[in-house]
Amino acid sequence: MADDERETLTRWARRQTSSQALALRCRIVLESATGALNKDVADRLGVPAHTVSRWRARFVRSRLEGLTDELRLGGPPKTTDDQVEEVVVKTPEGTLKDATHWSTRSMAQRDSTDNGLRPER
Fold first, then answer.
1. 72 located within any domain
2. 3-state secondary structure of 96
């Protein structure tokens, strides 16, 4: 491990603004760099040995960039931009009878019935 990588890992592990997950990954790599076995690092840090193995391998493969969270795209959005715009436009038009605020259910119910609004005061 290069000195600048060690300095960065130490800084990330101690930094107050680092996520706990990133700080743990940094500590795993720093402990591993001492030549300790995965089991020993795992015992010292209170994590499973396979976690140590995973982050150690990712560091070897991708260096510092391998320790940051990867972008997770998730599934496709279930709500279209047009649907969002429609809700944003409709919401300030009034409030539901006998209600103090909109909910997803009241918005859906309003769309399936007649207007259902009381005028704004």
1. no
2. strand
Shared-domain flag, residues 9 and 55: yes
Structural domain total, the chain: 2
pTM: 0.58
pLDDT, tens digit, 9 for 90 and up, residues 18-43: 889 999 999 999 999 999 999 999 99
Q: How many other CB atoms are found less than 10 A from the CB of residue 19? A: 12
Residue 95 lies in a domain: yes
3-state SS track over 39-94 = HHHHHHHCCCHHHHHHHHHHHHHHHHHHHCCCCCCCCCCCCCHHHHHHHHHHHHHC
In this structure, what token pair is assigned to residue 37? 């076995």
Residues 16-25: contacts with CB under 8 Å, at least 24 apart = 19/69, 21/69, 22/67, 22/68, 22/69, 25/55, 25/67
Establish if 75 belongs to a structural domain: no
